[in-house]
Amino acid sequence: MPAQIRAARALLGWNGAELAKAAGVSLQTIRRMESALGPGRSSAANVEGVRRALETAGVIFLDADDASEVGPGVRLKMVSESSSGLSGSNSDQS
């Protein structure tokens, strides 16, 4: 899970301090969770807080079964074109 947390932060463009603030934990907690020690040294409430913050921001955690042969990972939720302000049409371009 340490690599998943780092990858999720990267997908969101967040630094450790931003994740710490969103999760309501200290930066040191984030650093520890992303280190070789992993989240196993953190309280269940802190692990849940980090997971909830990342999921609220749009991250989906993939288990090894979900990711088939490539192992666990993360991805971002799809954003619909209407909510992102993107248009599938090029008719506005001259």
Compact summary:
The chain is built from five helices and two strands. It is mainly alpha-helical.
Structure overview:
Helices cover 47% and strands 9% of the residues. The chain is mainly α. The model is unreliable at 81-94 (pLDDT under 50).
Topology:
Elements lengths: L1 H11 L3 H8 L3 H8 L9 H13 L2 E4 L10 E4 L4 H4 L10
Antiparallel strand pairs: 1-2
Helix pairs in contact: 2-3, 2-4
What is the H/E order? HHHHEEH
Output the structural class: mainly alpha
Number of helical segments with 4 or more residues: 5
Low-confidence stretches: 81-94
Order the strands across the largest sheet as they lie in space. Answer: 1-2
**Number of E strands:** 2
The gross shape turns out to be: globular
C-alpha termini separation: 48 Å
Average pLDDT for all residues: 82
Helix percentage = 40-55%
Q: In this structure, how is the largest beta sheet organized?
A: 2 strands, antiparallel
Which radius of gyration do the C-alpha atoms yield?
Answer: 16 Å
Strand content: 5-15%
Attribute tags:
mainly alpha, 9% strand, disordered C terminus
